[in-house]
Amino acid sequence: QVQLVESGGGLVQTGGSLRLSCAASGHTFGNYCMGWFRQAPGKEREFVAAITWTGAMTYYADSVKGRFTISRDNAKNTVFLQMNTLKPEDTAVYYCAADPKGTRPYYSGSYYYWGQGTQVTVSS
Asked: Are strands 10-13 and 118-123 parallel, antiparallel or unpaired?
């Protein structure tokens, strides 16, 4: 069992930055591929970014590539999402998730554990 708690969301103006954190506890954090997903009102949950358990590979949605950076600190059981040049369309609840296999990092169904989410609102 892995427990995930996100933090760092908030209200920011267009062009601003936020850094989300996801603290993990429970099972060995370093064995999991970690992902970030988001869900805007009235829309389906969508993939944002993922990182393999070693941090050697990262994956990004086209909509955030070049603006967002995912990273992890296995010693601190934490994964981060640095979000720069934010746009109003980035407004959503952002969820952290853990996948024990890491074979399909873009697919939400691969992730076993989910956090409660943190709200990100980008004003225009």
From this structure: parallel
Q: What digits encode the pLDDT tens for the residues 43-77?
A: 999 999 999 988 999 999 999 999 999 999 999 99
Lowest mean pLDDT among 6-15, 24-33, 70-79: 24-33
Neighbours of 33 (CB within 10 A): 24
Q: How many CB atoms are closer than 10 A to CB 74?
A: 17
Nearest to 90 by CA among 18, 22, 21: 18
Find the radius of gyration of the CA atoms of the chain: 13
- In the predicted model, is pLDDT for residue 27 greater than 80? no
Q: How far apart are the C-alpha atoms of 50 and 104, rounded to whole Å?
A: 10
